[in-house]
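Structure tokens please, single chain.
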Amino acid sequence: MPRSFTPTAALCLAGALALAAPVAHAQEAALAASLVVGTRVYDQNGEQVGEIAKVSGDRVAVSIDGNGLVVPKNAFVKSAKGPALKAPKAKIVAVLRQAEADAAAVDGALKPGAEVRSADGATVLGKVMAMAPQGAILTTSEGNITMPRAAFFLSARGLAMKVDEKQFLAGVRAARAQKKGG
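Here you go.
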């Protein structure tokens, strides 16, 4: 007798899943619709974390205690109070503080004459020639190039870029080709 129920159970399960999919999409749509500038953002426990400052494509900027945190839309869940991040407030604030410390360390190291290494630290990609409003001007084997501050991090071997040597050279060459063509 249990065998005769197996196909029926499978059909019921398939039907339930088919019905659940539109509900899940509706919940996602409702959550996405609530991600607008000025909306309060909560943590997973319902504690207010901040407010949405900007929405751009799949990214949401949340203002938290005068600082910004940019997260993908899928980092949110719908709570009884409104959109919530999938973490406790203490962890969110700790991530922000670490990002501030990392940025300060990069700013301290990003000075003329500093060597800039690949992400793995194996290769020196260039040296900082000067600072510009857009970032740092690097002297490289491919010539001078300006890189945004966000491209840098501080590794165990010093100032580094978030790419390996091959990616860096390909990017520099592509930028040069685009500049010549445009």
